[in-house]
Amino acid sequence: MDPGSSPPPPPQQPSLPWRIGSALVMGFVGINTRMFMTNANSTEVHGLERFLHTLDRRKDPAKRRRGLITVSNHICVMDDPFIWGALPFSYQIDPKNHRWALAAHDICFTNKIFSLLLSLGQTLPTHRIAHSPLGGLFQPTMTEAVRLMSHPPFTTPYSSPTTAPPVDKSLSSPDVTDPFSSPNHTYTYSTNGIDTFPAPSAYDTRQYSWIHVFPEGRVHQHPQKMMRYFKWGIARLILEPDECPDIVPMWIEGNDQIMHESRQWPRFIPRVNKQCGVWFGDNVGGERGSVFNDLRRKWQELVEEDEKKEGRGFAMGVLSDGLKYGKEAVALREECTRQIRGAVLAVRRKRGLPDEDPKAGLVETWRQEGGQREGKMEDGSWVGRT
Length: 386
Description:
alpha/beta; 7-stranded mixed beta sheet; 3-stranded antiparallel beta sheet
């Protein structure tokens, strides 16, 4: 195959062994999480019926017409999977209709066993810009996430037998592939030009997927339940897919008491008898004439203008420098992020909490933390890795 050509059409879905493995991992984690959150702790859930109706409409991948984004505050290193303990058991065992998540490459994908379990558990490896020069808005995993929110097939870049990096088979390597549906590592991608991970967006049954995002980018446990500023990656997942996704903002509480950043030994054991809560908001995206539809229209105008200038079209999730760093593109991402943070604040308000200080949403406010990235801050909050 030509290095510059598109790969052959992929199978409709990953291999049967991969699908069984994914169902086992997702089901095991989901069922045990639900039992832990409803028996060892108490979880109050609001808006669940409405959210389950959204999931029911998406059960058949062939009938989906848009992706789904859920977005929430981030108060505990185990928020995912804790928050999905709110879902009934029957929703825990269907990976095709369950969430995809983003997790830190340097913490979670440290060897082959962890990488395999997390990949089967529908988690994508993400480089954090505070810890790696490979992090940021335009890393390969963000391209993969945009594609998961869209409809395949896509043009390059997928790896091909001639371009895929060699797969390191040692247990210390994070490299993972599905050898049954991608024997030549064709439907994979690399986060750094060296590692190899499955590219789930290649398969039709993964079209218009559901992705959950914690846009704060780190655990933030604040005594007044304030959020940090939101990072702009969430804007790419809203602006760039081929259809405006459904967007469900959420608010979560109590998980910080199960795994507080100040907990002592044994730190790895979750605490019990805690009161938790999950609030699902209304869908603020999709077909309705929301602000996100307006922002997407402006984004499409920018894309068309840039494609004319470049004299070529762009593959899904691939951006020119103008669309990465141009003033109008940056302004659109900034406004989109501001609006999505406002949607989460609206759920927080419905929960009955007072409005937070408007300055809390500004990056300048959090620069006052200085060089300290984790631990107890001057305002009494605790910040941890995610």
